[in-house]
Amino acid sequence: MIKILFVCLGNICRSPTAEGVFRHKLNQAGIRDGYLGSIFLDSAGTGAWHVGSPPDRRSQEMALKYGVSLKDLRARKITRQDFSDYDYILGMDQENIRNMKAVCPPDHHHKISLIMDYAENCPGITEVPDPYSGGLEGFDRVFDIIDRGSAGLLKHIQAHHTL
Ligand code: 4NP
Fold first, then answer.
1. What contacts 102, CB < 8 A, 6 or more positions away?
2. Which residue's CA lies nearest to atom 12 of ligand 1?
3. Among 49, 148, 151, 153, which one has the highest count of C-beta atoms within 10 angstroms of its own C-beta?
């Protein structure tokens, strides 16, 4: 089983959106996720402010417009154990990468990258910007960026693993 963890700061906007969007793409491709599937997905935050909370209402509304429900997800903080448990640990921006590398054991650093490292045909878009303090258009943009990153990630996973 391949385990993928999506990581942002609060785990209420970007990383739950990435988890939901990627799960949606997997299921559309006929790939089963979860404990009985070939891929296991989760998301986490580097901060603990929102632990136990569902995704931000704005992220939920934006995702639902595209047919993706985030309502059952709950925020949690990344743990040291996650770095050994997961195969791909995908940050949304460089701050997430810095925060993770500061606590990740060196032998697992190679698992950490930006989700947008996997995007195709997105020149200049290397990060998923934090939408929390901005307006709704920021959430729309975040959804679009995550959708592109997730599509590239799915291609990579299909090319490099037998599912
Ligand atoms: P996220 O957005 O990292 O995409 O979940 C944020 C959510 C909450 C905060 C910052 C970013 N916060 O400072 O509470």
1. none
2. 10
3. 153
Q: What gap in Å lies between CA 116 and CA 153, rounded to an integer?
A: 8
* Distance of alpha carbon 15 from alpha carbon 76, whole angstroms: 11
Concatenating the DSSP letter of every residue in 120-144 gives SS-TT--S----TTS-HHHHHHHHH
Identify whether 85 is a catalytic site residue: no
Domains present along the chain, CATH in parentheses: 2-160 (3.40.50.2300)
Per the CB < 8 A criterion, the answer to whether 85 and 111 are in contact is no
pLDDT band at 163; cut points 50, 70, 90: confident
Q: Where are the beta strands (DSSP E) in the chain?
A: 2-8, 39-45, 88-91, 112-114
Q: Output the average pLDDT for the chain.
A: 97
Out of 15, 114, 132, 141, mutate this one to test ligand 1's pocket (max ligand atoms within 8 Å of CB): namely 132
Report the atom number in ligand 1 closest to the C-alpha of 14. 4
* Residue range 5-40, pLDDT digits in tens: 999 999 999 999 999 999 999 999 999 999 999 999
